[in-house]
């Protein structure tokens, strides 16, 4: 009987610890959600490249798309995916040559689709891979066509060694009257196991 009481007490203690941990996590999550709520309606704008990617092989879902999904899941943000009216389904080495030519020429490839009611968003995450030192040129087409001045903008990149490159500076140049926050960069080969890194970054954002 004494042994049974000891076992029962141990189970009760474990359940109490588990409930306390869950409550603390819920409190942290609520604080984070409340912080994002204060920023008004949120949007994630991104370009992502499936197919052959450096250091990750041939992928069906692009690295940046995965990060954009993490952000939306954690913040409740809407999404707008930038899709070029141009075929980038090609071997990686050929792709970087195309990216180089576009960047050097200042090309602005046409986009497919349209973002409605951009004025309703107060906070905009902007993400993409790093192609030739900055975002893909089709993202600059978006910058030309949509005015995000006056909003809070949070850049992010997926990369394999370039970090943020000049992406933050280029966003600031496109939107001089926006509050552009320091950016976040994550290796493309890390994104599929990198949810915790994205969550840590989001929780550390200061508005």
Overview of this protein structure:
This protein has 207 residues and is α/β, with parallel strands linked by helices. Helices cover 43% and strands 19% of the residues. It has helices spanning 2-37, 63-75, 92-105, 137-145, 167-174, 195-203, and strands spanning 42-46, 51-53, 57-59, 78-81, 83-84, 111-112, 123-129, 152-159, 179-180, 184-187. Strands 1, 4, 7, 8, 9 and 10 form a six-stranded parallel β-sheet that branches. A two-stranded antiparallel ribbon has the order 2-3. Strands 5-6 form a two-stranded antiparallel sheet. Strand 8 (152-159), helix 5 (167-174) and strand 9 form a beta-alpha-beta unit. Helix 2 packs across helix 6. It is globular.
Order of helices and strands: HEEEHEEHEEHEHEEH
Pick out the low-confidence regions: 2-12
Class computed from helices, strands and strand pairing: alpha/beta
Per CATH, the class of the largest domain reads Alpha Beta
Enumerate how many helices there are, as a single number.
Answer: 6
**Beta-strand level of the residues, as a percent range?**
15-25%
What's the CATH topology label of the largest domain?
Answer: Rossmann fold
CATH superfamily of the largest domain: Flavodoxin domain
Overall pLDDT score: 88
The beta-strand count equals 10
Distance between the termini: 58 Å
**How would a crystallographer describe the biggest sheet?**
6 strands, parallel
Rg over C-alpha atoms, rounded to the nearest angstrom: 21 Å
Shape label: globular
CATH architecture descriptor name of the largest domain: 3-Layer(aba) Sandwich
